[in-house]
Amino acid sequence: MRIVIAEDDALLREGLTLLLTARGFDLVAAVPTPEEFLAAVAEHRPDIAVVDVRMPPTFTDEGIRAAVQARRLHPPLAVLVLSAYVEQSFAADLLADGVGGIGYLLKERVGRLQEFLDALHRVVAGGTAIDPEVVAQLFTHQRAIDVMRPLSPREREVLALMAEGLGNTAIAERLFVTDKAVHKHIRNIFLKFDLHPTDQTDRRVAAVLRYLDSRTPSRP
Amino acid sequence: MRGVAISDNRGTSPRDVFEAVERLAGGLGTSLLALFTSAGLIVVAAASLAGVGLLLLPFMLSLVRLVAERERGRLNRWQYQVISPYADTRPTGWAARLRAAASDPATWRDLRWLASHASLGLLLGLAGVVLPIIAVRDASFPLWWWLLPIEEAGASLGFPVRTWPAVLAVSLMGISWAAILIGLGPAMARLQALPGVRLLRPHPSADLSQRIAQLTVTRASALQAHAAELRRIERALHDGTQNRIIGVAVLLGVARDAVVRDPAGAEAALERAQSAAEQALGELRTVIRGILPPVLEERGLAGALTSLAADCPVPCEVTVAELGHLPVAVETTAYFIAAEALTNTARHSRATTAAVSVNRVGDLLSVHVRDDGIGGAAVSAGSGLTGIRRRVEAHDGTITLTSPIGGPTVLEVELPCAS
Lengths: 220, 419
What we know:
Chain A has eleven helices and six strands. By secondary structure, chain A is an alpha/beta fold. Chain A has two domains: 2-132, Response regulator (Rossmann fold), CATH 3.40.50; 137-213, Winged helix-like DNA-binding domain superfamily/Winged helix DNA-binding domain (Arc Repressor Mutant, subunit A).
């Protein structure tokens, strides 16, 4: 797996480099600015980019914008965004193209190595990996509650775990139910969100997107 | 502030009489200006009816302001404290100037004052100047009447005086002029000043609305300073401390991963994690010091300033008078002003010595920071000085910066500190 890292903090860049090379990943570039990141992606065509949200010059959302641009220029680039804080609109921005291969994790998750590596693999495989913290915050928002209203409590739980990026089996294990039951719940979610099998976009991603988008009524 | 009451129960001393005469004479000067300006205004107003005077109107109104400002200056010299009521903005263009003048209540109050001072003020001023002259002339009449040609003597009585009783009568009249002056002089002077004191000050409501406007501005800058401060703290915590701690978490993950496979690598990662944790603590201390220096709480303003001076690369002398109890906000502001000023001194001034002194007079805390550097500092030039200004304005204080090219630079700040 070929990886490009964009992270302005030297310590974290070093930590990520240590960690990924120790595990035998092919780390082709680790750069501190959005410009160098875009150049590195163009040059190396990695499988996945790991990008920090706040980067120079303004330290706001440069990383998100660079990631969105890199995905547009070099599809199907998978992107795993690392952030020091929870901001759902960033995740929704990334998912807006309706294509999978997106992750949004809090930075400290990198320390939980196995979970971090699982997330990397899931995102490269075209899935999603949304931080449980982001997912948890969704339920506190009125509009999210409105969007979720047609879903049963169990279906909401399933959708939340889908957003984190878990597969059917993993969801079944987490909820102590059978694979078949999970499959039924997911079918019901697609039905209630009006997502048909004929749609071009990945229905799992579309459902997650609907869920995330409900959290952000006014995106800039 | 001196009151405007006409009656005054104090006895009248010779000094009061001289002062009254001086004031009436000064008032005579401005009342003559008011008279000429009124005459000019009448001419221009009449010409305006024919159209041609309209062009001169803004000029005449400026002239009225000039005369009014002169009277304000005169009244201020006599401690009446008459501040200018005019709006700060000066529009350009004939129509805009006229519109602005017409909508400013101060213009109409100026015109009322002009009329009153050109009439009543003029008469009182003339009386004030003429009374002492004729009092002296008539009172001293017995000394020199015999020098006059026979038909000229006794002019103040209106008929020739040839006998001693008549001469004494003239002298008595002079004494009564003096008595009138002594009795009424101070009251006349106050009466002459009265229209100016009443009309040339900002209208009481304007005074309040100005104050409200000023408070709105200072409140806005206090909020702005507050927001900037929060942003600075957030940035420092996020880019420094938080990133260090995330680094610790990541490096601990690396170490755990390597502990069996590669013990030496794990040791190296733990070493890096430990130093990152220490860095995080160091940065946290810096942030805390920037919010509220612990030294201020532990050792008070004097101790905090002394340690500030000890850290300053430019040799710095600190003098702190007995300050009594100060509100924490004022103390903190005084500390940050000194800190910011000394930082500027160290960075830009090339000074060889600096001095900080803090004094308290009543409910006013003054902070002076001086250095012998190259000068040329300006509040607008450096964000540091702008920060000081915002902090000072938030306290309703005043700030004066003198920094000529070539130095020295002196920053004087006064902060109200009633607790």
